[in-house]
């Protein structure tokens, strides 16, 4: 028989429920193995208060078992077509059991190389098993106290699950933002390349327009020089013509006197 993974929670000996898993009956979980005898060393704590009479004692023990089974359900596994069930132990714990639990917890933390700080699934699993074992020990002596610890355990698990959901959603949000940033970066790089190409085209157009302006200014300057020269020549011609006319006019007027 191969038992399931070892746990810090104390269980009874496994019980063979059925040789065929298809024939499992609803009363399978009600079967319970004989409790293991408590350790001989160390004082045994007083069992929970019970009423006088064997019937009342049996009823109280059955009620405690039901509470234990509701808090820590039995483990089931199949081996060679046989269904085995292992229920949580209802044996009261001694002081030595608590010391051994602490030592076993430290040993498994070291054996499985659990991290001392930060998020560590291994450390969380082992401490959860240790808390379940403490709940089991308390429930045997006081069912009400065990149920209260059960509420504390469920609240802690719910809080951790909420933080885990929040962490996963924040990681997903971060990934979406990172992808959007990468996509935006690629789009921005394309836009930058397009703007650079447009800038080069505009610079080329500016150079062409500057060259045209220089040519126009050069032709305008040449044309202005030609016109100024022509204008100067016309003025000189007109001055000479005027001078000649004055001379001729003076020659005509002089003989008459």
From TrEMBL:
Region entry Disordered: which residue ranges?
1-61
**Entry-linked InterPro entries:** Axonemal_dynein_light_chain
Cellular component per GO?
axoneme; ciliary base; dynein complex
Coiled-coil annotation: which residues?
Answer: 185-248
One Pfam family linked to the record: Ax_dynein_light
Q: Does the keyword Coiled coil apply?
A: yes
Q: Where is the composition biased (Pro residues)?
A: 35-48
State the Gene Ontology terms under molecular function.
dynein heavy chain binding
Q: What is this protein called?
A: 33 kDa inner dynein arm light chain, axonemal
């Amino acid at each position: 028989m191969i038992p399931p993974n070892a746990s810090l929670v104390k269980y009874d000996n496994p019980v063979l429920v059925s040789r065929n898993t298809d024939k499992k009956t609803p009363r399978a979980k009600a079967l319970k193995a004989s409790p293991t005898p408590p350790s001989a060393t160390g004082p045994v704590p007083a069992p929970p208060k019970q009423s006088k009479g064997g019937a009342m004692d049996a009823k109280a023990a059955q009620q405690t078992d039901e509470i234990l089974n509701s808090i820590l359900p039995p483990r089931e596994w199949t081996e060679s077509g046989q269904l085995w069930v292992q229920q949580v132990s209802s044996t009261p714990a001694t002081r030595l059991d608590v010391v051994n639990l602490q030592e076993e917890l430290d040993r498994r933390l070291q054996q499985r190389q659990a991290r001392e700080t930060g998020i560590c699934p291994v450390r969380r699993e082992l401490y959860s098993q240790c808390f379940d074992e403490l709940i089991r020990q308390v429930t045997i002596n006081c069912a009400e106290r065990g149920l209260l610890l059960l509420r504390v355990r469920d609240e802690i698990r719910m809080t951790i699950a909420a933080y885990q959901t929040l962490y996963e959603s924040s990681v997903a949000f971060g990934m979406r933002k990172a992808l959007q940033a990468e996509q935006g970066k690629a789009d921005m790089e394309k836009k930058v390349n397009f703007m650079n190409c447009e800038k080069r085209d505009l610079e080329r157009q500016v150079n062409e327009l500057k060259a045209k302006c220089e040519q126009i200014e050069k032709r305008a300057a040449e044309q202005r020089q030609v016109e100024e020269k022509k204008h100067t020549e016309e003025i000189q011609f007109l001055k000479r013509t005027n001078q000649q006319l004055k001379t001729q006019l003076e020659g005509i007027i002089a003989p008459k006197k």
